[in-house]
Amino acid sequence: MEIHTVTESAEEFTCNAYLLAGESSALVDAGTMPGVEDVVADHVDDLDAVVLTHQHRDHVGELDAVLDRFDADLYAYGDHPRRTAALEDGQTIELAGEAYEVVHTPGHADDHVSLVGETRVFSGDVVVYNDGAFDDGSFGRTDMPGQSREELIESLRRLLDRLPETVEALYAGHGDVYRADPVGEADSVRDVIERALDRAERREPKYPDE
Length: 210
Hints:
Strand content: 15-25%
Structural class: alpha/beta
CATH class of the largest domain: Alpha Beta
Order of helices and strands: EEEHEHHEEEEEEEEHEEH
CATH architecture of the largest domain: 4-Layer Sandwich
Number of helices: 5
Helix content: 10-25%
């Protein structure tokens, strides 16, 4: 299976939208980059599914354009007028021929989910490797209305509880993809998430101006 970050050339603020191309094809989040559907079409002829980690605008801004272009099912935890399949905590879904467990991870958004596979996790915004706050394990912001640091902390704990030891890559909604050193000399994905949890548990502002 190949994974392409189809929003990597974006000039506007967007999430990372990941195209999984294998036995079938799936897009994790759609982002806000105009023309993202054309980038998807550069890699695959058909798109079978779009899966949303959550419905903040930077993750769904171009969702309609993608769904208008492709006859794809829309998987989402929260209600959406174009949703064809509801996600539930603990559910297993198949994306591009690989199985992923849906883990409900609210705090940054009520409808937030992470997708946990045997070798990789798509974490949305609940945990990222690097952003403007931290460079080696950061947590989603919780200073906006409707967000909760306490819920996010519990979500990170839940994610760690469900994380297989075989996971070696973290595909987050922002920042860089993190891949653990195969010989074990660098941090594991679990190390990165534990560091993010520790920082979140301090209850300090993520950004100085919060």
